[in-house]
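[Meeting: bench + compute handoff]

Bench side (C.D.) handed over the final construct sequence. Compute side (W.E.) agreed to return the predicted structure before the next meeting so the bench team could plan truncations. Sequence as handed over:
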Amino acid sequence: MAARRLLILMLVLLAVSTVAAALVPPQGEDSGTTTRTRTKPAERGEHVKRTPPGRLVERTIRVAPNAIARVHVRLDDQLALTVRSGVADQVAVPAFGQIEDLTPEAPARFDLLADQAGVFEVRLVDAKRTIGRIVVTSGKAGAGGSAEHQARRRSQ
């Protein structure tokens, strides 16, 4: 008898909580307090430089015995990188702090934001070798040369 009353009480509480949850409006991620900031309007004759957002660049590296692939992107580009191989290993992009498994059936996939200029290695972890380099350039000519050229100068 007591178990039946407890079961009825639990069902009533469940119904009440369901109705209460249905009546509360959903909260979005930006539903907190909003702040408004004023930016200084451009003065007459002053040009406002607007940089377009980066583009999506999709590239694939196929692991070859003695080859190092190069992937060229510009600063602020989104790189969707796929690495394919006939052997199982792990692929690491140390500069971006990412590591993915690689099998002949399932390629390693990376989604990287090129937010810093430079040359970044793509490595096979178990084989301990570099299979590719991601070359991120600023897109500005005359700023000391390309990122690859600067990296070569630093290593000398």
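W.E. noted at the follow-up: The first helix runs from residue 2 to 23. C.D. will use this when planning the next construct.
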